[in-house]
Design goal:
The protein is built from no helices and eleven strands. It is mostly beta strands.
Length: 111
């Protein structure tokens, strides 16, 4: 099983990023997926969840008007579109399923 997140970077407040998580080694289309984040000195925070066929999702209140989770089952890839980024969104972002977490991608938002 492999989960490889990418797309992070350094942006100014108000900017946008699109994170991707390319997966392999399991039946992606049948698997609910999550994006989590961890800011320095903080615990893991579940940001967004999507079901296997993409018909249902849930995003935490603090970002739900700015972040959108999606997936392309043909590409075994999970996405997180992040708009109007704020400094408090700075964290390492991870994709995860069934407790398996891949390598994260760093997002840094400058004020």
């Amino acid at each position: 099983v492999q989960l490889q997140a990418s797309g992070g970077g350094l942006v100014h407040a108000g900017g946008s990023l699109r994170l991707s998580c390319v997966t392999s080694g399991f039946t992606f289309a049948r698997t609910a997926m999550k994006w989590l984040r961890q800011a320095p000195g903080e615990g893991l925070e579940r940001v967004s969840t999507i079901n296997g066929d993409g018909t249902w999702s849930h995003t935490i209140d603090s970002v739900k008007d700015r972040f959108t989770i999606s997936r392309d089952n043909g590409k075994n890839t999970l996405y997180l579109q992040m708009n109007n980024l704020k400094p408090e969104d700075s964290a390492v972002y991870y994709c995860r399923f069934n407790g398996i977490r891949g390598q994260g991608t760093q997002v840094t938002v400058s004020s």
